[in-house]
Predict the 3D structure of the following.
Amino acid sequence: MAPNGQHSTYVQADDLDACVDLFGRLKRRDFLKFCTGVAVTLGLSPALGARIAKAATSPARPTVFWLSGQACTGCTETLLRSHHPTVDTLILDMISLDYHETLAAGSGEQAEIFKDQSMKRNWGEYVLVVDGSIPTKDGGIYCQVAGHPFVDDVRHAAEGAAAIIAMGSCSAWGGIPSADPNPTEAKSAQDVLPGKTVINIPGCPPSPYNFLSTVLYLLTFGKPPELDAQNRPRFAYGRLIHENCERRPHFDAGRFALEFGDAGHRQGWCLYKLGCKGPETYANCPAIGFNDAGFGAWPVGTGHPCFGCTEKGIGFTKPMHAMAEVLTVTPPNLFPRVAEPKGQGVTPAAAALAAGVVGLGVGAGAVLTSRLGKDVPPDEAAFEPPHYTEKPDNQ
Amino acid sequence: MTVDRRAFLKGAATGGSAAALASVTAPGEAGAFARPSKPRPTQALGLLYDSTLCVGCKACVAGCKDANDMPVERSRDQESWNSMVTPEQRNQVVRQVGDTQPIWDTPKSLSGSTLNIIKAYVHGRAEVKDRAEDGFAFIKRQCLHCNDPSCVSACPVSAMTKDPDTGIVNHHVDRCIGCRYCVWACPFNIPRFDYDSAFGKLRKCELCDHRLAEGELPGCVATCPTGATLFGRVDDLEAEARRRIALKPGDTYRYPRGDINRRFGPYTPPHEKVVQAAYQPEVYGDRLLGGTQTLYVSAVPFDKLGLPHGPHIPDRMYATETEAVQHTLYRGMILPAVVLTALILIARRNVDRHHTEAEED
């Protein structure tokens, strides 16, 4: 796909103009725009776009191995649907994708031999991407590639990896294969690689730009971007979906769709009561959408509640229409009045009772004072409580 | 014996309470009895809330809860519409509404869990903002940090203190004995006790002094998008407030945001706005009840916004009178000693007569 076969002749990092040929349909201007966009996605200064462009066109294209386990190929499909850059630009000009079961030109033993050779050559320097969960029951025999358990492949490849990226919910936290009853004891990449730093890009599938931005950050700065407690890049998973959702004003105003197709649903009201997991799911879906299709191209935008695919314990775990726990509780669009009515004021009966108690206290105090120091028999000194004059009916 | 008792009661009543009654009735005479008001510290910090700028977004309510780590709140009568299923109840079909968690933070007023709240004045058809008739307006309620605070005067254990430099009225939870005198003493109804807890604590706004110590603005100011809540030195805020009440509808004014002195928090540029409604010709907080460090300007009369206002509200804090009464009654402990002596004498007289009666028998 690279034009004129020129992708093998690399340009100097400074010579951006020479990149034009390398990017096929992509003009230099468009390429710089893309890199600036990546910088902004990452929360970096747009000025760093040029630095990212240099890194992306560096002669030493980083080697990437992509291992697929118990996966549906959805994560590869999402990558194929990225438009800036297109996947051909990515895999031919920006990275050297040396092994990918779906995208590789070769197959069978040919591909495996090339993988082994390349892995030896680039030992300690390549980027390892894992998609799909990793079965561990019975020695991991439920997913085998080229005759050996996938879990062994991952552990071997991770030994020589400079960085490990878990692409998609399955490899980030287990995903669908790990859902109850989990017959294969499917685990995440982090679970089978204790002690290694695995950058998790959860999502089912994740946005390709979260993956691309992370890869370009690694190439540019030589270290992973800022990660949260679950090793997800903060630039993509730092905020709740609830915080960026275009339907949030409906939530704050108390306008909810109650079933699919009802009046509220057709008006685009909040999907919280249909079980939307946005209030407890961290992801940037509402901010960047999917497929470059413009505004609203994400699950909630199309009228389906978020099901929490990026969150362990929520996606594929919590029932689809069970209500979410709101992690950031804020006030609604309602206001308390200046004088909010409270109680019913003093009733005459209560006032009479209070007056009686006060009178009793004053009387008792007076009697007590008058008898200070007197040595009177106890029964005479005892205070006589008021008694009812009415006698009980003796029938 | 009955006659003796009446005589004794008379004596007791006149002797013991004459002085007290005289003292209590005295302040009625135009406060001649009151001690002088305490002035505002020169470097006092405070807020200026401009009701005409407030858009009712309640970012300050959320910002305050966030800054002070306060729990969310829901009243019992809101449970039917403000509830969600807890994770434990997820798979239960039948549930008690009262056991659910709130999905919105819906305080009705200040409380042990809410130190700052935006309330709405609503009249009739509520058509136009900042109009008293058939209009509406917003009001922010939080501690006014009085120049001469009643809560500090009323507190028996010095749990309420006023900072001599910043003038911030602090509440020290570790000293508080939970007597709630401050709740009764405050004319603005600010300190609130957490009645829902068996070991409830009292809480009030402390102007986020923990954030000020780090150079940050108070939570409510940092989040305010329009500058309706403005932070700064109170004297400068008062000058700003006077400039605003001199404006006429149609005038354009550059409203500052954040810290008027640009000392705390990130700099936020001012914004221009055309004045829509005529301001009330008064800055609330400059004189009433001895003056406060939270100032208000508004287009709607202040009494409609729930602030004590009117000819019956004096220019000095009630503490000036109550303190004078208390300090007179207990000066040198003379009066308590007199009362105690009287009680002892009464007791002795009763004992003597009893002995006499016994001897006669």
Summary: The first strand of chain A starts at residue 63 and ends at 68. Residues 135 and 142 of chain A are 6 Å apart (CA to CA). Chain A is about 35% helix and 10% strand.
